[in-house]
Amino acid sequence: MHSQDVAPRPAPRSSADRTVDVEQAEAALVEHYPRLVRLAYLVLPPGLGRGRRVLTAHALAQRALPRGRAAIPVIPAQSGGARGHSRGGDGRDGDPGYAYIRLQVVRTALEAGLPLRFTARPRRGQLPPLLPQVWGLRLFPRSGGADELALDQRLATLSGPARAAYVLRGLEKLPDDDVRGVLTGSGVKDTEVAAALREAAKVPAAQYALLDSPEFDACSLQARPTDLMRRRRHTRAALAAAAALAVCGALVALPGGGWGPDGAAAPVYAQNPAAEAALDPGRLVKVTPAAWKTSARTDFSVWPARGPLTGDTALLRRALAVWARPGGAVHVSATPDTPVGGPAGPPQLLYAGEVDTARVVILYDGLRIARYAEPKDGTAGAALDFARVDGATGAEAGALVLGRADGNVRYLTAPWVTKAGERDLSKPGAGVMDLTLTDGITSPLASPATHTGTCTTWNVLQLTDALGTHLFSDLGELVPARLTAGRPAAPGEASGSQALRTWAPFACSLADARGQGVRTVNAWGYTRQQLPDASGTAAWACTRAETWRGDGSRVLAQFHTPGGLFGAAVAKAGDVPACGPRDPHVLAGVLWKSKGGDWYLLAAGDRATASIRATGGVTGSGQGNLLAVPTRQGAQAGLEGRLKNGRSINGLR
User: How far is Cα of residue 219 from the mean position of the Cα atoms in its chain?
Assistant: First the structure.
């Protein structure tokens, strides 16, 4: 699909006419469709993912057309251009039809960014679009340069109204009075409108031109297949499920001696010994404090029961009952693909005590960590959190989040941890601030998990045991992610001096892995490249986040120029083997502007790369693992590489 140029159209009727005919709105929608889809794509929250944003942007633009044949009233704030502003020659300004459609697009795009609530009826914009739908393909806009990627990441930190304000200013060229009118007409409160304008002003206006980049053109798209192996597995599973359903239906219909509605199962509320044992606080597994010293295992199964409330039977009974049957008022959260059902048997008690303003119980059933928390003054507002920890051993079983308050986090550490500290991952030479350990509980340290502003620091937890020193990052879940550095085939601890220097420019990229059930994140500085204008040497690195569930890995190719505090993510991919132990290779590129104003395509592969070739809008090739080709701003290029063993690889996008 490709964007079409907008042709001039007859001058619209005067803004004094406060109504819009359905035909007039339809004409505006058809004429300015690419512009409206781009507007929706930019206002939608980036957290939806590029593919879903594309489809949702088209759906919102197509839904904007009013229903019925009657004239539609227009509020004055919609008639952008009625005040005599001259902002372009494409006929949009002063056209009530276009102003009406634009308002509907902005309103529904802002609704799509609102969280769904159980107590409120979802708005139409919050629901996945019924049309258009694409099966078997992933669609996304063409990739831009590092400037466009940086702008997209910056817009992701803004609130929905602030993002809309910035786009209306930069893309639609509206003055602040008209922007205020559009936001108010979209349902944004007056106090939030003023805050949105102030927040949007923090993003440089010099980047307005980037909003017209192909990076944000949701009508000029690239297509890639979905995960073919996963699709095949899901098809087989669906066929098996359909067959099983047919068999079960036949058995239910059998007369007399066959299975009835419940078969051999006991009545729904019958007592079951195993289920009762799992809910009995007297049968909780409590490991002795010295068991880990003689055990061959170093995992959560040898953690002792700690905390002053391990003998509070009433608290433990409530925690077990809520785990098995959480009420409607209980806030339940879980990392992706983590089962939230009750335990199969008596779980192990890891902690019971008071943390800040709550009573906390932490339990372990061999597969999951379950954290129950209730206020000190009652049970209203209880919360239940789950995290997968299957296969955790050694450093991966080194710490759990005990509680968060006021931007800080406390950890419960493994009994073999001898020392704890806090350090800023973005400043490798800043040293470590020691944390006190009291019965395995750390003193509070600053957490980056909930930080939404501009990233300037990234505090991590440093733990020391008999095997060495390990780093962990809080990514908003019960189990902190372990940080490593080095080649994917044999990564090492991230606490060494060289590993800290590798991580420092890319520390803030850990925000991309929040809430994904991440187990480990490895940073690999795979090469360095002399810049074409002789201004220094740039560093290339890839970071790979592995999850507890196996799939859902995330790979970022990152680029850091000399003198810059932080690097930039130039390519992103999910569920690919690149930069991992199964395929320890990577190839990525970036459009880079020299101090003299010249543009280059810079590409780099790991040291096993024998040659690189640029295709598409940039042509060039070279031997070795580095390539620098002069080009123009906004050029689109693909990368193909060949390893020394003869195998071909494609560049990350």
Answer: 24
Q: How far is CA 142 from CA 18, 223, 245, 628, in A?
A: 39, 10, 43, 21
Q: Is 515 left (phi over 0), alpha (psi -120 to 50) or beta?
A: left
The answer to whether 551 touches 518, Cβ cutoff 8 Å, is no
The candidate with the shortest Cα–Cα distance to 573, out of 47, 1, 48, 50, is 50
pLDDT at 193 over 60: yes
Nearest to 97 by CA among 129, 65, 119, 58: 65
pLDDT digits (tens, 9 = 90+) for 305-343: 999 999 999 999 999 999 998 988 999 999 999 999 889
Instruction: Indicate the length of the chain as a whole number.
Output: 653
**242, 96, 81, 155: which is closest to 452 by C-alpha?**
155
Q: Which residues pair with 333 in a beta bridge?
A: 385
The answer to whether 512 and 458 have CB atoms below 8 angstroms apart is: no
β-partners of residue 134 are none
Short-list 384, 304, 398, CA closest to 339:
384
Instruction: Single out the residue of 7, 60, 1, 62 nearest to residue 31, CA to CA.
Output: 7
In the beta sheet, which residues pair with residue 285?
Answer: 348
Binning the chain into helix, strand and coil, the percentages to the nearest 5 are 30, 30, 45
Q: Residues 472-529: pLDDT tens digits?
A: 999 999 999 999 999 999 999 999 999 999 999 999 999 999 999 999 999 999 999 9
Q: How far apart are CA 127 and CA 319, in angstroms?
A: 34
Alpha helix ranges (H) inside 462-527? 497-503
pLDDT above 70 for 21: yes
Q: What is the pLDDT of residue 1?
A: 42
Q: Where do we find the tokens 């095949």?
A: 232
**Residue 502: CB partners within 8 Å, gap ≥ 6?**
485, 523, 524, 525, 541
User: How many C-alpha atoms does 224 have within 13 Å on its Cβ side?
Assistant: 11
pLDDT at 269 over 60: no
Q: What is the DSSP letter of 305?
A: P
CA 322 – CA 382 distance, rounded (Å): 9
Q: Could you report the per-residue pLDDT of 94-116, keeping only the tens digit for each?
A: 678 888 899 989 998 888 877 76
Please give the full DSSP string across 5-55, using - where no structure is assigned.
PPPP-PPPPPTT--EE-HHHHHHHHHHTHHHHHHHHHHHS-GGG-HHHHHH
* Three-state SS sequence of 47-115: HHCHHHHHHHHHHHHHHCCCCCCCCEECCHHHCCCCCCCCCCCCCCCCCHHHHHHHHHHHHHHHHHCCC
Scan for tokens 């619209």, then name that residue. 12
Nearest to 605 by CA among 630, 578, 631, 586: 586
Separation CA 159–CA 172 (nearest Å)? 19
Q: How far apart are CA 470 and CA 627, in angstroms?
A: 36
What is the token pair recorded at 197? 């304008």
Strand, coil or helix: what is 605? strand
Give the mean model confidence (pLDDT) for residues 266-289.
79
pLDDT, position 78: 46
Q: Are 488 and 608 in contact (CB under 8 A)?
A: no
